[in-house]
Amino acid sequence: MPQVNNWQLGRDMGYVYDAKYPARQFAFVFNINRCIACQTCTMACKSTWTFSKGQEHMWWANVESKPYGGYPQSWDAKILRMLEEANPGEQRWSEPASADNGQPYGQYDGQTIFEAAEQTLTPDSARVLGYLPPDEEWNSPNIYEDNPVGGRGVRDRLHETGEQLPIHNTWFFYLARICNHCSYPACLAACPRKAIYKRPEDGIVLIDQEQCRGYRKCVEACPYKKAMYRGNTRTTEKCIACYPRVEGTDPESDGQPMETRCMASCIGQIRMQGLVQLNDDGSWAEDRQNPLYYLVHVAKVALPLYPQLGTQPNGYYIPPRWVPRPYLRQMFGPGVDEAIERYVNPDRELLAVLQLFRRSNKIIFRYEFEEGPQVYEGTLRGRPVTLYNDTVIAFGSDGNELFRTTVEEPLHVRPEQHANSI
Question: Residue 292 in contact with residue 4, Cβ under 8 Å?
């Protein structure tokens, strides 16, 4: 099996094909702390792409309540259990995190779904450790929504003091998901028809419907279960990252790269999407003023979803600050504690960059940060806090300014005659 560099794991790993990378990579950051599970993203995607016969069960974008919810049901618990069974007790991270040697989260010493398949699966055509969900697991996209976790080993009873930060005793959180458009897609690796490919211009993963024969190997292989079989056409379909919008050919775009439908419709302002430059080994090229690069590699508040699976997903999440840390570490890797600490106590630049989320439906390629006057001084959770009304300016693909916004949101006072009007 060829060896490829997986910078999220801090080491080389086995993959079915030799490494090949796009000029730029589609990527996104979701701030889970802001998600309210309104499902506006879900319905924006459904009403655009999956409203036809045979697509009733297809939710390319969805929001799940963790830890109990999932679509298909228990997708993550099942693949994590299979990985553990293939390599008992070895799914651990070692080595201290170091950006200098390409190990921003340390080194993952366990097996990936590709390496575990090579060790445990037969025949040779079984290239990826995975499973095929039965039909009933696709029936309920909102299963166990809003179900909280109480005391360990105590059923039907929640903690009496379950609401206290920094970690709640009674907890759940919303996990918004789309296809991660992975750098090493499991769906692509598993397809016997070679019907799945990454676009060379932006790394978006697509399925060639002319080549697909509906073997469902991609459905079985994708650990995130974002490839979905359509029975009436006998082909598999998946999120296409609204690529006409990303490439600027959507009629609404005026030639400017736009965010996807799920991103642009987000009520909670949890989403930011963009395109990042890659090095020859698939790692992100230094681009200090790209907001995604800043959040992932500078502020380090955004982490990949289940990096130990080995697909090098291009979806990143700012972890929820109230959830028990062991649960978050298994989901987002060993950078959780530092990410939450930086998010809860942001510096001036991070606080400004967080204001960029959902201020425009155009993709932000660069930002500038301008310091402003002090507007508040006090304490928060026993720490001194000073806030400044700094300005952050966003620029598009052509270098022109898209918008500018401040940390302190403007206050509008309704005139007396309209004070109670909507």
Answer: no
Q: What is the DSSP letter of 410?
A: P
CB under 8 Å to 384, separation ≥6 — which residues? 377, 378
- Burial of residue 150, with CB atoms counted within 10 A of its CB: 0-12 exposed, 13-18 middle, 19 or more buried: middle
DSSP state at residue 364: P
Chain segment 316-370, per-residue pLDDT in tens: 999 999 999 999 999 999 999 999 999 999 999 999 999 999 999 999 999 999 9
Q: In the chain, how many H helices and how many E strands?
A: 11, 19
8 in Cβ contact with 284 (< 8 Å): no
- Selected from 3.90.226.10, 3.40.50.10490, 3.60.40.10, 3.30.70.20, the CATH number assigned to the domain covering 3-348 reads 3.30.70.20
Q: Using DSSP bridges, classify how beta strands 173-177 and 62-66 pair: parallel, antiparallel or unpaired.
A: antiparallel
Residue 261 near residue 242 (C-beta atoms within 8 A): yes
pTM, full prediction: 0.95
Nearest to 236 by CA among 318, 145, 132, 331: 132
